[in-house]
Amino acid sequence: MHSFLALAAIALLASCASQIMKNYVGGPVDAVILDYGPPDNVIEIGVGQRAFQWRRINTETVTGTTTGEVRQTRHGERYEISQSPGYVKETECFYTFFAQASGTRWFVTSFRRPQLECE
Question: What is the pLDDT of residues 44-54, one digit of tens each?
Fold first, then answer.
């Protein structure tokens, strides 16, 4: 039962960025630019087709832990403490939209699903 709940939670979280990106399909790239700023990369992928890419660094603070337990020694009981330090985890994420030209504007046709840790 626990593994089912964990998989359900991962599936729910995994769709977050993709669901947001899906909302831009069919609209102008200008809407994405207004929400997230200018793209970091614009790549020509064919006649009248481009990929617009945004790069973000996600930073997460992971707290340290302290645990302890009583151990029996030949001199009696002793309380031992184990510690793991906290750290900062950085993940580089790329969000890519594919677009097609229509007149002088670009319209989002699809997107590349971000890697799991960027969802």
Answer: 999 999 999 99
